[in-house]
Amino acid sequence: MKVQALPLVSVVMPSLNQARFIDAAIDSVLGQDYPDSELIVADGGSDDGTVELLRKRQAADMRLRWFSGKDSGPAQAINAALAQVRGTFVGWLNSDDVYAPGAVLRAVDALQANPAWLMVYGHGQHVDGTGKPLNNYPSLPPSTPITQFSEGCFICQPTVFFRRSIWVLLGKLDENLKTAFDFDFWLRAFKACPERIGFVDAVQAYSRLHEECITVRMRRTVILEGMEVLARHLGNAPEEWLLTYVNELLTIHPDQRGVGDLKEHIADTLAEARQWLRNDELPKLELQLAELLK
């Protein structure tokens, strides 16, 4: 009786100066209970010891391949790594996140049991810099209407696995986006093939929130690019995205409420976001912002 070979799973991992986290990320990939996998790390030219660590890890486990050099951002790094994958199924894990035990096997089982599915995602949890649990990611099932993305992203990025063929259908990540390239990709998938997206009902990954992660460090860009992506795919972006950002700023800097620098920053942000908002919402939004900044 012929034993059917398991499909190769490729995991791509962008990295830039994440030496304090990348060991745990690599361990979570290479330590999975799935026997046939490879890990491709796309390093953006780290100078914090990451490259030396990658050399050491590759010498110990040849399933790890890596390259290092300057790039324009994570989207370009991921696209470059995806060009090298050999697997039938692909995962994408940031170098400060970690897979849950059994995540790869559960994703493969789901994709093999449902040949029409091009992509699966599952539950995720936020953890802090030390790995301490913070909260559950607000995941919603693939049956959720695409318009729900206006309320926020409901796909936890490191939980996603897909067939390599999805890149033929959807194309590469948008390298012009510095933070919202994954959000853009989910919306493209939900527009192109919503019935071919599945869900793994288990915690698949832990997404780390810390002071240097993109979600925290580039918050203004995250908000503005998120609004741009929503307008691109759904016609416009809700004003709540901008209000949320302003409220976050006021929570962090309560003593700056009436200070000119903060007001100017918010005015500049509104000026940039205006193109993605509905015109009939702008007067109300301007009044709300003025009230918040009193």
Describe the structure.
This protein has 11 helices and 9 strands. It has helices at residues 19-30, 50-60, 74-82, 103-113, 166-170, 181-192, 214-217, 219-234, 240-252, 260-273, 282-292, and strands spanning 9-15, 37-43, 64-68, 89-92, 98-99, 119-127, 133-136, 161-163, 197-208. It folds into 2 domains: 9-214, Spore Coat Polysaccharide Biosynthesis Protein SpsA, Chain A, CATH 3.90.550; 238-292. With 294 residues, the protein is of the alpha/beta class. Strands 1, 2, 3, 4, 5, 6, 7, 8 and 9 form a 9-stranded mixed beta sheet that branches.
Q: What percentage of the residues does DSSP assign to strands (E)?
A: 15-25%
The overall average pLDDT, rounded, is 93
Proportion of helical residues = 40-55%
Number of domains: 2
Structural class: alpha/beta
Number of helices, where a helix is a run of at least 4 consecutive DSSP H or I residues: 11
How would the global form be characterised? globular
List keywords for this structure.
Spore Coat Polysaccharide Biosynthesis Protein SpsA, Chain A, alpha/beta, 2 domains, 11 helices, 294 residues
SSE arrangement:
Elements: E1 9-15, H1 19-30, E2 37-43, H2 50-60, E3 64-68, H3 74-82, E4 89-92, E5 98-99, H4 103-113, E6 119-127, E7 133-136, E8 161-163, H5 166-170, H6 181-192, E9 197-208, H7 214-217, H8 219-234, H9 240-252, H10 260-273, H11 282-292
Parallel strand pairs: 1-2, 1-4, 2-3, 6-9
Antiparallel strand pairs: 4-8, 5-9, 6-7, 6-8
Helix pairs in contact: 6-8
